[in-house]
Structure formats: C-alpha cells, structure tokens
Amino acid sequence: MNRIRHKVCGVLLAGGLARRMGGGDKCLRPLAGKPILDHILERIRPQANCLVINANGDPARFDGFGLPVASDAVEGYAGPLAGVLTGMEWAARHAPVCDLILTVPSDAPFLPHDLAERLEDRMIAEGADIACASSGGRTHPPIALWPVSLAEELREAMTVEEIRKVDVWTARYKVAVADWSTDPLDPFFNANRPDDLAEAEKMLAAAV
Ligand SMILES: Nc1nc2c(ncn2[C@@H]2O[C@H](COP(=O)(O)OP(=O)(O)OP(=O)(O)O)[C@@H](O)[C@H]2O)c(=O)[nH]1
Fold first, then answer.
1. For residue 144, what is the domain's CATH number?
2. Hey, which bits of 95-152 come out as E strands?
3. Whose CA is nearest to atom 2 of ligand 1?
C-alpha cells in the first residue's frame, strides 16, 4: 500500500552513457528474463503517483513501457544532477499535483519497496529539504526525494555556476538520510559492468 503523504513523481534516471557497460541502455539489459527496467518499475510504480523515464537519444526505444520520456534539461551529459533537474522541471510542467520527485538509477534492480515512504519519514522527522538513501552507511546521492520547488535554484546552480556533483549542490540544503540494511543483499546494488549483471542473476537466484 502506498503510505506516502506527499504526491510523488518517480524519475527513472537513464540518461548516462553506460561506458563501463560498453554503452547502450543498462536498463534494457535482461535480468532473469526481463529488462532491468521492468524490475525497477515493479518496485517503484506502487510508490509513485506518476512516472517519467529520463533518457537521452531516441525515445522510441522505450515505447514498450508506455511511459513518458524526458531528455536532459541541460546539455552535455552533465551527470545524475541533470536528471534531477529534468525530473523537477518535467513534474512542474506535466504533473503539477506532485510536490516531490523520487529519483532512482535505472541500473538498480533491487530497490526497496519502502523507499519513498522511509525517505519521506526522515524528511518530515528532520524537517529536511531533501532525503537521500544510504545502505550499510554509504550514501547514494542519485537515490533521493526532492521538492519540485527547488527546480529554479538547481537550474541556476547548473547553468550559471556549472555545478555537476550532486553532493556539492545538496551541501547547501538540509539533507536527511535513510539507511537500509545490506543483509541479505544491498537493495541499492547497481549493475555498472557486464560482470555485475552475472552477479545480479546470482543474487536473484539466491533470494528465491
Ligand atoms: N540524466 C542523466 N543521468 C545520468 C547522466 N549520467 C549518469 N546518469 C545516471 O545516473 C545514474 C548513475 O550513473 P553512473 O553509473 O555514474 O553513470 P553511467 O553513465 O550510467 O555509467 P558509466 O558511464 O559507466 O559511469 C544512472 O542512472 C545514470 O543513467 C547524465 O548525464 N544525465
């Protein structure tokens, strides 16, 4: 059940170049017989009021998923922060009912079912501007809950100040952190290299 109090737009970050994987779309690589993106959607769809795929290039390759695709709002493959800005601006324009966005990388097939709920809990409990996920004490800056209302400040930071690192920008705000256990598996495991896909298959097999 979705116990989130805010209205949340889920933003699937698929805008990177996937160099370590050899290029292409990591989220379209198969895992247990279906694209990684399907694993992510199963987990994130129930946690969000709407969804958008953030990806560059021809959006037709995502036609089968029936979701809107938004390309980066700033040029030059500026990293995950570009995806955060794209998500905020997309939500402001197309999903004005959503006051928060939930960004997740599109190469992490085991995302927690309680991701949005626990991030929101920490955000409210700490009166924070942003809530970020961590596991085993390691933070994952692209996995976070962000207010859409920060879009203008982020656009200014990216275009005028040319800030690219997520941490550098979020240092200006109060950031709450919600931590997940890595036992029996790290829910934020992500597949960067072909070997990681084989590892993910093993993790799935061990989990059933
Ligand atoms: N929108 C957007 N997302 C990005 C960009 N670069 C990385 N990301 C996303 O941020 C998340 C983490 O990215 P990385 O694994 O660091 O980068 P990557 O491009 O996917 O892979 P590498 O090229 O191997 O580093 C993934 O979901 C990427 O799709 C970008 O320029 N724009």
1. 3.90.550.10
2. 100-105, 130-135, 138-147
3. 15
